[in-house]
Amino acid sequence: MNTTPLYRPTGQPELDLIEASGCTKWPLRLIDQPIFYPVTNEDYAAQIARGWNVKDSANGNVGYVTRFEVETDYLKQFPVKTVGG
Predict the structure, then answer these.
(1) Average pLDDT, the chain
(2) Were both Cys, which of 1, 4, 12, 79 would link to 60 (CB 3.0–4.6 Å)?
């Protein structure tokens, strides 16, 4: 089975929920975050964590980058979109 690493910037409350699940699932999305958007680049995930999570007191003013593996064949059904400029 081939897998692809994906990265997700997160704050402390979301990380706490991930850990509470035994690191087996992502929590439900928050009202102000209706989509789940992992990224394919660890550096970009770190940039988001520093730029958004660290500046947000609701996130505990900390930013983490989580890494997880997804089956590559499964990912092929989703388009990769480039964001930012």
Answers:
(1) 90
(2) 12
Is 14 a domain residue? yes
In a domain, 80, yes or no: no
Report yes or no on 9 lying in a domain.
yes
Residue 6, CA distances (Å) to 9, 40, 57 in order: 10, 5, 25
C-alpha–C-alpha distance, residues 71 and 84, integer Å: 26
Burial class (CB in 10 A: 0-12, 13-18, 19+), 56: middle
Range of the domain at 12: 3-75
Of 26, 4, 7, 6, nearest in space to 65 by CA: 7
In a domain, 85, yes or no: no
Q: Please give the Cα distance from 29 to 37 (Å, whole number).
A: 10
User: What pLDDT shows up at residue 30?
Assistant: 74
